[in-house]
Design brief:
The structure holds two protein chains of two kinds. Helices cover 39% and strands 15% of the residues of chain A. By secondary structure, chain A is an alpha/beta fold. Chain A has an eleven-stranded mixed beta sheet, sandwiched between helices. Chain A has a two-stranded antiparallel ribbon with strand order 4-5. The longest helix of chain A is centred in the C-terminal third of the chain and has 22 residues. Chain B has a domain of 38 residues. Chain B is built from three helices and no strands.
């Protein structure tokens, strides 16, 4: 076998079962690639000294706790903090034969959409290191894209699985709120946080989700909705979209690629009025800011200088959110969810839109030296993801093309609550007809 | 939504100080401006009896049949 790291997770599982490859070979192949890529993209924070050699190796955002191991959460404040318990998601992956070989870079406390990190170094896009990897699960997107691991966990509070998946050209699933236990995962905003996989294909995401989904008594918000086995049943989906809105509001290259990809779906396309993205995003921001600031209140009082200025600014804003505004946003949530399902999805199974309204921006454009246009650009990066967290519904991002500079473009499908199986089946069907997910960044720079 | 009132830098500074949060010079004005700009109108009206816990039931109702 030429490079076992080039296999998909599904193919690696199959090759292991058939004894065409040994787990040790998979681990060694990943470690060899990590050694070559890490100086260029800074995706990893730590590597296991003695990685388990039974199963297919994964690595995860540095915010999933493992008893006795360090979880830095992308921060200075938690640098060197040792977890006292293991997260349910990691325990379930261990049991399913997907051991962890390391921890991955992330935005500080998962509170940023780009992958900048002044404490641990910026994570960079493997397609071009001048560009953002997306955040907050930056290392998860970059490591999977560069074929350093077969899959990774991320968390998504406003787009933190989907933005890096789109920016790095991999498949990412934001799960329904409550679908995956958050026990032992660093909290940011309990009403919005969800955990999901980033992997090379919808099929690979389905394997990871099947291992981690399902009720967990240790997470009080965990859903009792039965978890499926996420078999990728082939069927013709009805997919709603708002072509006019995409053409008017997305960057032209993004609009052209996403609308062309929509036509490649084996689906009945239905034009609908778009959801009120900006209103729903504003509600999401209200909830996220209030909850994140409450979560960080003690450190913000005692150690404000240990946050980066960007994260400290976001947290300061949350202390100014009126309690009535926060509660009103939560009261409205059920009504908005019902409106989305009864209007946008009235005659459709899924809703299609770009993952990001803009092409992947550079680290400089979106960093401290980004200038006057930086806040507006960041708002465009998250404009089409936050509304999904407010509704709490699942969404899948799949790569669907490249811009003129060679950076990936992602297509987003949004479903009803607990429609992960439908999303993954639609994504798999798309990936059976296209090869965008098979493309990997070149190593010609080595 | 709420907050027809416009926030001032002084008001923000006082609100945060009451919570033990100190701000760098100029930050309060920036937060006030952002908060004022973020006020959204809500086209949905709510029943008086609705509360945030209704969301869990809505998730159940909105599942694919």
């Amino acid at each position: 076998m030429s490079d076992p790291a080039a296999l998909s997770l599904a193919a690696a599982v199959q090759a292991l079962r058939a004894r065409h490859v040994r787990s040790r070979e998979l681990v060694d192949a990943c470690l060899a690639r990590i050694a070559r890529w890490q100086p260029r993209i800074n995706a990893f924070i730590s590597l296991e000294q003695q990685p388990a050699d039974q199963g297919v190796p994964l690595a995860h955002k540095d915010m999933f706790y493992r008893k006795g191991r360090v979880s830095n959460c992308g921060s200075k404040i938690r640098r060197g903090w040792i977890a006292q318990e293991t997260s349910t998601a990691l325990s379930r992956l261990d049991a399913a034969g997907m051991p962890q070989i390391g921890t991955l870079n992330m935005a500080e406390f998962a509170y940023g959409p780009t992958g900048h990190n002044e404490h641990w170094g910026d994570c960079r896009n493997p397609w071009n290191p001048d560009y953002i990897a997306g955040g907050s699960s930056s290392g998860s997107g970059a490591a999977v894209a560069a074929r350093l691991v077969f899959g990774a966990l991320g968390s998504d509070t406003g787009g933190s699985v989907r933005i890096p998946a789109a920016a790095c050209g991999v498949t990412g699933l934001k799960t329904t709120w409550g679908r995956v236990s958050r026990h032992g995962a660093m909290p940011l905003s309990h009403s919005l946080d969800s955990i999901g996989p980033l992997a090379r294909s919808a099929q690979d995401c389905a394997l990871i989700l099947a291992a981690i989904a399902g009720f967990d008594s240790q997470d009080p918000l965990s859903s009792r909705e039965p978890a499926g086995d996420y078999v990728l049943a082939k069927r013709k989906f009805r997919v709603a979209l708002s072509s006019d809105w995409i053409e008017r509001h997305a960057e032209p290259e993004v609009a052209a690629v996403v609308l062309a990809a929509a036509r490649d779906l084996d689906a009945t396309l239905i034009e609908v009025e778009p959801p009120q993205f900006d209103t729903l995003s504003a509600h999401c921001i209200t909830v996220m800011q209030a909850e994140a600031s409450a979560q960080h209140a003690r450190w913000m009082r005692e150690r404000p200088g240990d946050y980066s200025s960007a994260v400290r600014s976001r947290l300061e804003s949350g202390f100014a959110v009126p309690a009535a505004a926060y509660l009103e946003a939560l009261r409205l949530r059920a009504a908005w969810l019902e409106r989305f399902c009864s209007t946008t999805l009235a005659n459709a199974d899924l809703y299609l839109l770009p993952a990001m309204n803009v092409r992947v921006p550079t680290l400089e454009q979106t960093g401290p030296r980004g200038g006057a246009g930086m806040p507006a650009l960041l708002a465009e990066v998250t404009r089409l993801t936050r509304w999904v967290n407010y509704l709490g519904v699942p969404a899948l991002v799949v790569p669907c093309g490249f811009d003129s500079l060679g950076l990936p473009i992602g297509l987003q499908l949004v479903g009803r609550p607990f429609a992960e199986a439908e999303l993954l089946a639609a994504g798999h069907a798309f990936q059976c007809e296209t090869d965008w997910h098979c493309r990997a960044p070149a190593e010609r720079w080595i | 939504m709420t907050a027809a009132k416009q926030w001032s830098g002084e008001a923000i500074e006082a609100v945060l100080a009451a919570q033990g949060i100190r701000l760098a010079p100029g930050r309060a004005e920036k937060i006030a401006n952002a908060l004022n700009a973020a006020t959204v109108s809500a086209p949905l009206s709510l029943e008086f009896e609705s509360d945030p816990t209704g969301y869990a039931l809505a998730l159940e109702r909105c599942k694919a049949k």
